[in-house]
Amino acid sequence: MSEAPRFAIVVPMLNEAGNVAPLVREIAAACLPLGPFEAILVNDGSTDATGAEIAALQPGVPWLRSLRHARPCGQSAALRSGVLAARAPLICTLDGDGQNPPAEIPSLLAPLLAGDPGPNHGLGLVAGQRSRRHDSRARRMASTLANRLRAALLGDGIRDTGCGLKAFPRAVFLALPFFDHMHRYLPALVLREGHRVACVEVAHRPRLHGRSKYSIAGRALGGAVDVLGVRWLLYRRRLPQIAGHTIREETSR
Fold it and tell me: Domain 7-246 sits in which CATH superfamily?
């Protein structure tokens, strides 16, 4: 596409060869009516045919871009690589496992496309919240407990931060502190910077190809450490008011 993209779709992928082509088709159907865009598939060091599947599609899809990590670095790192590479001022993310329907993208982008996409726009994040999860009972229960703990400690007012469907101004994301698994705490981090967060109910689908990269025990242990770290970040943040304007610069006390 010759026009500058209005928005970018960023999709982290680790060993998701079977999901590449279906996702690209669905992204095209959802996004082409919205105007010029780009989709960046971030191959996070896959050892299967994910890279080959992306390469096979690119010659006929001018808006499709790809990045590859030399080794797996995690979902947050893959998202950050995609956002850094994006040329568009607005970003929409979704998981590469096919469980986030790309048909939801227009609903997430609509509030941001309607306003000023700059970093001073009041709306800093539109977060998808899954209305019905198609995961195992054990995974749903673990997620519910984790979300309750997070909400109690961070007070972000969000029911479901694990949904991969999110939209935000690129500049807002890049101003956030980066750490592994930070993608699960975007609402709290965006609120920390003085922006608003909106929620949109989205659908969720069963996984058809590949396997989950997270174990319940591993996620629970890492999440307990992460949420305490984010709580510390919230506690240490100060947003001074000068002449009626919020100064978004870090200060320490």
Answer: Spore Coat Polysaccharide Biosynthesis Protein SpsA; Chain A (3.90.550.10)
